Inverse folding.
């Protein structure tokens, strides 16, 4: 069965989006109106387990998180490359497999390098 | 109908792109950048390139924005320490940006019209067609891109290791 | 036979006969919108209640049993309480982002509801990039989490958001690769095609070894992606108070809570669709008689049964495994799950090439 895929297929998503925004906005406004509003300086301070808060929370943190994020971007792009191949897997046959095999070997080489270098070791 | 959607998306993209530049807080800029990416994904959908639209959202709005957020959160964002750029630097940036714009406008004015914005084959942007083209006609660039990934991985590891020593 | 699709069709017919086609379409959209919202709220209520009851029975307690019949109205009462609470925005917070983050998270989970097939021929939106759409939208909610944590101007929130961001993005890779296994076997990323390909048996049985490995990886990955115990160190009550939503109160907190539970439902529904056949009844090859008997159970029941079974599994994990540390968590993903899923992908290609699946 051949589907005719058109941009207009995406109309339901727009509706869903509008519905979602409407729902959240309504609940947020409603609770804003319903709830009590008693504000005090101490109440609005950021929570630090009851101790007076020290400075603010715009503090630098471990570079490891950044490394995880950058490796994620790389692997994510590679995973996306596999989708068009997975869909056409049967038509492409052995050539496709060979191509993907080379791709995977290079990917695993990089992966081996990352592990070997201890980039993901968490001190 | 398609035309008005196109204008709406273009307006949204340009407006939020402007907001990226204008907003003082870099995290707000990231938010506007996400809206820009969604508007561009909408353009892809209008061109019936649905796979590209999804990939655009995954890679740019998802993955790269997470990376940006991590980078920005790593910077010290306290207002007192924000460096003030000198007037010279600002005017130099204006001149450089203005020149680039003049060049772009000039180049676009002389370029010929691309013709019909819609591809002849309506299914050309769908995942099945795209996969066949990518893995048959563009086999070599695909393999070379994997070497690029390898280089990027090595680079990332080098960047990350430097700090910990 | 009375089925959900039948009801939907008769409503469609009635609307088209009574109104002009434009109005009928508009009314249908409004109807679908209302249905989605009420289903959303209903899911939140049911899942929170289920979570509390399941945990109670696992710890030999009774759980909520005072409000309503056997405590059934407990979550409803909680919701009412949350609605009339004061929604605070701390002084140091970035007001705009602080209020915007719940939108981002909840819109993502609401949009994810669209392509799920709840019963035979009953799907809000069947697009040709189904699986990819789900990956795309679910990658947006990370940004909401990071923004919520950062804008609160609270150290616990920031730490929680960082951890949860790193965790969600890492495990997204394995989940994606596990999904890819089924895409290779089914040869399509449209959800209805994937379900149709399981007509003579679910993929977890037809794809035997690689499918089972992929299923296990998928379940682990989505447990981590939804920040559930034993991977709940984004919230880690005992160390980070409540993680990225420490500063949220009242309905804003409830919205995060709701999206968390709905996300559990969605990932389980996707898992059920990919590996356990979605609404497809248990069919075994060409045993016509057996298949026919199984068809008597409505498809919506099959779908809900499978989904809730997976949800129960994830709730069970919470009371069985101790919480991991952040380094252990990332090690598990990068050193074990990711290589295993890459090799599993090679294995499934080999098996699909040789035709060694049923």
């Amino acid at each position: 069965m051949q589907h005719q895929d058109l941009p207009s297929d995406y109309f339901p998503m727009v509706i869903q989006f509008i519905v979602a925004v409407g729902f959240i906005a309504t609940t947020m406004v409603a609770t804003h109106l319903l709830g009590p509003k008693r504000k005090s300086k101490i109440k609005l301070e950021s929570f630090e387990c009851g101790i007076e808060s020290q400075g603010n929370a715009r503090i630098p943190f471990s570079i490891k998180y950044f490394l995880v994020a950058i490796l994620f971007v790389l692997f994510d792009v590679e995973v996306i490359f596999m989708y068009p191949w997975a869909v056409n897997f049967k038509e492409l046959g052995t050539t496709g497999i060979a191509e993907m095999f080379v791709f995977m070997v290079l990917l695993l080489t990089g992966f081996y390098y990352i592990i070997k270098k201890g980039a993901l070791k968490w001190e | 109908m398609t035309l008005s959607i196109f204008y709406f998306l273009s307006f949204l993209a340009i407006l939020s792109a402007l907001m990226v530049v204008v907003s003082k807080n870099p995290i707000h800029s990231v938010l506007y950048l996400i809206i820009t990416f969604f508007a561009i994904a909408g353009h892809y959908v209008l061109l019936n390139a649905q796979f590209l639209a999804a990939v655009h959202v995954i890679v740019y709005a998802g993955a790269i924005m997470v990376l940006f957020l991590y980078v920005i959160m790593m910077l010290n964002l306290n207002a007192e320490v924000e460096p003030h750029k000198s007037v010279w630097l600002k005017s130099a940036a204006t001149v450089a940006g203005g020149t680039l714009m003049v060049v772009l406008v000039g180049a676009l004015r002389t370029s010929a019209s691309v013709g019909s914005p819609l591809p002849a084959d309506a299914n050309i942007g769908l995942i099945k067609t795209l996969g066949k083209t990518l893995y048959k006609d563009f086999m070599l660039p695909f393999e070379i891109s994997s070497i690029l990934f390898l280089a990027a991985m090595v680079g990332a590891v080098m960047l990350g290791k430097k700090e910990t020593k | 036979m009375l089925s959900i699709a039948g009801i939907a069709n008769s409503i469609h017919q009635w609307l088209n006969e009574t109104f002009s086609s434009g109005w009928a379409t508009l009314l249908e959209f409004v109807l679908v919108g209302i249905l989605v919202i009420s289903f959303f709220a209903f899911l939140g209520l049911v899942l929170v209640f289920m979570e509390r009851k399941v945990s109670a029975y696992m710890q030999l307690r009774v759980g909520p049993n005072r409000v309503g019949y056997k405590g059934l109205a407990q979550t409803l009462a909680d919701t009412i309480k949350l609605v009339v609470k004061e929604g605070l925005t701390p002084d140091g917070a970035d007001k705009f982002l602080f209020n915007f983050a719940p939108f981002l998270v909840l819109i993502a989970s609401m949009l994810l509801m669209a392509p799920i097939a709840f019963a035979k021929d009953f799907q809000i939106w069947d697009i040709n990039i189904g699986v990819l759409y789900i990956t795309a939208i679910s990658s947006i909610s990370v940004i909401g989490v990071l923004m919520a944590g950062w804008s609160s101007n609270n150290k616990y929130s920031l730490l929680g958001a960082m951890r949860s961001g790193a965790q969600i993005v890492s495990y997204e890779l394995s989940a994606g690769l596990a999904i890819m296994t089924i895409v290779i076997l089914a040869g399509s990323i449209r959800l209805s095609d994937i379900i149709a390909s399981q007509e003579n048996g679910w993929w977890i049985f037809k794809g035997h070894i690689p499918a089972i490995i992929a299923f296990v990886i998928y379940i682990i990955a989505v447990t981590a992606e939804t920040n559930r115990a034993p991977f709940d160190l984004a919230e880690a009550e005992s160390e980070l108070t409540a993680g990225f939503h420490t500063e949220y109160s009242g309905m804003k907190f409830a919205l995060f809570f709701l999206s968390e539970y709905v996300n559990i439902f969605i990932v389980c529904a996707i898992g059920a669709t990919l590996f356990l056949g979605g609404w497809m009844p248990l069919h075994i090859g060409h045993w016509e008689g057996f298949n026919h008997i199984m068809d008597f159970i409505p498809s919506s029941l099959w779908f809900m049964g499978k989904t809730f079974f997976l949800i129960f599994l994830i709730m069970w994990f919470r009371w069985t495994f101790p919480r991991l540390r952040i380094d252990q968590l990332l090690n598990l993903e990068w050193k074990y799950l990711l290589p295993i899923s890459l090799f599993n992908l090679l294995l499934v290609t080999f098996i699909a090439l040789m035709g060694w699946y049923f």
Summary: The CA atoms of residues 95 and 109 of chain A lie 21 Å apart. The mean pLDDT of chain A is 76. The longest helix of chain A spans residues 89-117.
